[in-house]
# Entry
Amino acid sequence: MKPIQDQIVLITGSTDGLGKAAAMKLASRGAVVLVHGRDRKRVDETVREVRRAGGQARGYVADFSELAQVRRLAGEVARENGRLDLLVNNAGIGGGSPSNAGRQTTPDGLELRFAVNYLSGFLLTRLVLPLLRAGAPSRVVNVSSVGQRAIDFDDVMLERAYEPMRAYRQSKLAQILFTIDLAEELGSEGITVNALHPASLMNTKMVMEWFGRASSTVEEGLDALLYVAESPEIDGVSGAYFDQKWRSRADAQAYDPAARARLKALSERLVGL
# Structure
């Protein structure tokens, strides 16, 4: 990897929580950080905060519940940046508050958590691969979770049996299937792809809304994220799942080539690739 001060870094969902902490830290160490969020005001505020602290940042707005906005984001990033050295797919939503735990769909007709937590990151990564190739050696980090559940390919959109935790967990496992599949596809191109469970129940707004309590801190999650994003100890490591700083085993479905092929074909069809 290049020294951090020579890197251009895109962090999705970087106006709050772990994503914002990563943006602030990497910018403070010299990286050009591309801040993403779905709210223009919050994106602009985060960019100003980075700049006030002496860092470099550019802001991008896209709602990951709409695939058209993901495509627009990828186009804007490509036009304004010649390369990417690090992509952190961090944007996501939890199970919702107890008062808002019913099944929700996106404007594209997709189950909301599958779309935001997995499918939009799948599409964005595919669209910015030319930038990652231009920045190689480069890294992709998919912020997943230890909470995983096998995908039911007969009911991926959970139309027959919806439960918010199930929706969240299958979307997080989908990220890991994608991680392993893309790592195998890219091979020796100089782009590594890894998935990460940063920490359990960090003290973020999403966790407090969902569980009403925290058992770890954003700082703990940030420490793990930075390790997977930049540590020389894992140069060349690709297709791995990390539980914080340790290589671990995901749900068994992640290691099923047939399941990964099925998910890839479904994802390409849903996003129109």
Observations:
- DSSP finds nine helices and eight strands in the chain.
- Residues 137 and 190 are 5 Å apart (CA to CA).
- The two ends are 30 Å apart (CA to CA).
- The mean pLDDT is 93.
